[in-house]
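Why should sequence recovery work at all? Because a backbone constrains its sequence more than one might expect. Tight turns favour small or flexible residues, buried strands favour hydrophobic ones, and helices have their own preferences. The token representation captures these environments compactly. In the example below, the structure is given first.
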């Protein structure tokens, strides 16, 4: 140990050894570095596949219509165009505006889009083509601003969708076209202060007055106030009210009613009270409000009666006698919200990754040799490991989102269960992925990720709500596991094969995983399919056995399920990831051999192996040995280096126009120059 008098010299020597690659070499003389210059990543990154074809595969449908709408927004000052750098223009909401100003701008943008025919056919159009076009437009609008997409989603998909699905012909004729043209501005009053996910427990009460032929809606207590109702605080004229229906003292469960809450001049109607939910961490362009009903009378015709009706003399009529089945029929059409949220989450992940990866292909930090050039961020293996697995997951989930849209648009009564389970699983998985991706991208952009104009950091606050609205993610995943358990029990009792929810693989013999995984095995579709299916079938069997064991000990079926929550969580994840992987396989299989298929094979393998690495259940339940888990981890690192040359092409294939990204995705030096300040 050095004496106190030698300590400064001793510490200097230690620090010098840390800084020098060779402890014996001497430091070169300090010299000023030349100024940095921006080099477009396109100059050093060639594209090895057709990015236009990749975009068609990723977007799935209506690429030309998407581009038309992107162009329409860039033509108007309502979308806040601003020049950053020499001639490069970006669009995006002005978050320096107050909450009230943001709400007003959202409505002005809707009026602009309405006047240019964007919403034509959103409720009156017929067939899959109109449905897919509507979904494509909503995704594009969400890329510009989440508030705009949510405001439209509430009006068209929730208010308008409820009339479409819960209503009958006279409701359609009276309300749909006026909704499409914004003569009527609708909102959707389901959530209450005291009840969110548990819709059956809502406390708003509606009775029928046979003497006048009217329903009377009442908020009986403070916890029954309608809460978080998008559009209610400022703009909505009408709402769908979800309420318990009570006739002559008999509760018939939750039903949906149309009620007017404002007149054409914006004045709140009699016996209606409305308050603002206030400022939020995001979505301040949406006027979320609270509603109280003080014995509000509405005509009998305002009951949305496709599932159940009330006769003029007060007789309750429904072809569905079982209350549970009747409630399920009410809830089935509401999957549209989960579908659009899942798709929106993936496009937001694309924004974050496009910005972070483009920035990492032009931003440098540190050199690995004395006086050598600084290294691009994405040339560091650790930076690749942060972003490229998330890129692979985003591609996989793009295919999953396209599949979800397809089964929703082409739905039949027989497919309602599948849509419910898949939309629940994908909504949770894709929105969780989005929040993780945005956080990683924010950090990968360093301090620039904190600037609102660079989008990534701010998008976290805007999209955090996706984890809880239209169903809390944890609750949705429990519903997935519960549905899988019901399917398993039914198959066991009836001794019949599995036919739904993608569980057909359980009709085959159990897959066997090799004791030693080689490079070629890890990259094979067969192994990847087998390991995903093995995990799902084993967890489902374990889950059923644990629930059964709790029931054998005297627990109720419901409480037995609650006690088995850990296996339920593992099973929900297993189902979701296997389903996503299956959609990737199907997208890949549709391609002929070539460079596009080759790169998708790499991306698919990255998705599969990162899923294995990140889920402890593969080790916990013995699907992978410790040595095989180590082999997976090593292979992920190799895949990162193999995907690195294609990173720019993969994010360019997202097809998001430059104006909808951010300054750090391009010439960030010029965008932050003194010249740009003076302008």
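From this structural description, the recovered sequence reads:
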């Amino acid at each position: 140990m050095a004496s106190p008098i030698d300590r400064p010299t001793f510490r200097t020597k230690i620090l010098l050894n840390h800084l020098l690659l060779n402890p014996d070499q001497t430091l070169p003389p300090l010299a000023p570095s030349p100024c940095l210059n921006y080099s477009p990543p396109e100059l050093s990154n060639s594209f090895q596949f057709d990015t236009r074809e990749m975009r068609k595969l990723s977007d799935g449908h209506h690429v030309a219509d998407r581009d038309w709408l992107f162009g329409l927004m860039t033509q108007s000052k309502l979308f806040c165009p601003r020049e950053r750098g020499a001639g490069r223009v970006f669009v995006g909401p002005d978050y320096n505006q107050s909450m009230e100003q943001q709400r007003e701008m959202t409505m002005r943008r809707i009026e602009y889009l309405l006047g240019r025919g964007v919403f034509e056919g959103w409720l009156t159009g017929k067939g899959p083509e109109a449905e897919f076009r509507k979904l494509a437009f909503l995704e594009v609008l969400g890329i510009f601003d989440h508030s705009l997409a949510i405001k439209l989603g509430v009006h068209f998909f929730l208010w308008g969708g409820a009339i479409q699905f819960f209503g009958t012909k006279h409701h359609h004729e009276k309300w749909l076209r006026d909704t499409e043209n914004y003569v009527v501005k609708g909102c959707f009053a389901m959530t209450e202060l005291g009840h969110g996910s548990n819709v059956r427990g809502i406390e708003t009460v509606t009775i029928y007055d046979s003497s006048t032929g009217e329903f009377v809606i009442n908020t009986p207590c403070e916890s029954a106030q309608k809460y978080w109702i998008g559009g209610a605080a400022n703009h909505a004229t009408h709402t769908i009210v979800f309420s318990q229906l009570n006739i002559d003292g008999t509760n018939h469960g939750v039903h949906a009613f149309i009620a007017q809450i404002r007149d054409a001049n914006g004045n709140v109607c009699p016996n209606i009270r409305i308050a603002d939910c206030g400022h939020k961490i995001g979505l301040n362009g949406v006027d979320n409000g609270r509603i109280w009903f003080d014995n509000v009378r509405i005509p009998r015709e305002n009951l949305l009666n496709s599932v159940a009706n009330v006769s003029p003399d007060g007789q309750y009529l429904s072809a569905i006698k079982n209350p549970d089945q009747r409630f399920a029929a009410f809830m089935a059409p509401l999957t549209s919200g989960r579908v659009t949220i899942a798709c929106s989450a993936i496009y937001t992940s694309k924004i974050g990754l496009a910005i972070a990866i483009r920035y990492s292909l032009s931003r440098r930090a540190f050199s690995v040799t004395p006086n050598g050039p600084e290294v691009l961020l994405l040339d560091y293996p650790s930076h690749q490991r942060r972003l490229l697995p998330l890129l692979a997951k985003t591609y996989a989930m793009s295919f999953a989102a396209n599949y979800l849209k397809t089964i929703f648009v082409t739905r039949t009564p027989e497919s309602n269960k599948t849509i419910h389970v898949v939309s629940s699983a994908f909504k949770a998985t894709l929105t969780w992925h989005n929040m993780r991706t945005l956080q990683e991208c924010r950090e990968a952009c360093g301090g620039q990720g904190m600037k609102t104009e660079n989008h990534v950091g701010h998008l976290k606050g805007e999209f955090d709500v996706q984890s809880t609205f239209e169903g809390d993610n944890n609750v949705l995943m429990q519903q997935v596991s519960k549905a899988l358990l019901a399917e398993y029990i039914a198959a066991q009792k009836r001794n019949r094969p599995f036919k739904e929810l993608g569980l057909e693989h359980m009709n085959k013999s159990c897959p066997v995983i090799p004791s030693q995984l080689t490079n070629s095995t890890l990259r094979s579709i067969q192994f990847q399919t087998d390991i995903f299916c093995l995990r799902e079938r084993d967890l489902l069997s374990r889950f059923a056995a644990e629930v059964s064991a709790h029931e054998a000990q005297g627990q109720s079926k419901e409480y037995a399920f609650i006690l088995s929550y850990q296996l339920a969580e593992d099973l929900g994840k297993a189902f979701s990831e296997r389903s996503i992987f299956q959609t990737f396989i199907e997208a890949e299989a549709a391609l002929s051999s070539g460079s596009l298929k080759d790169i998708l094979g790499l991306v698919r393998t990255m998705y599969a192996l990162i899923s294995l690495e990140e889920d402890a259940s593969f080790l916990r339940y013995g699907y992978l040995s410790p040595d095989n888990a180590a082999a997976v981890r090593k292979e992920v690192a190799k895949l990162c280096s193999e995907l690195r040359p294609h990173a720019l092409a993969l994010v360019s294939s997202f097809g998001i126009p430059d104006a909808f990204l951010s300054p750090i995705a391009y010439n960030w030096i010029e965008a932050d120059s003194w010249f740009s300040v003076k302008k």
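A few observations help interpret the result. Residues 204 and 243 are 5 Å apart (CA to CA).
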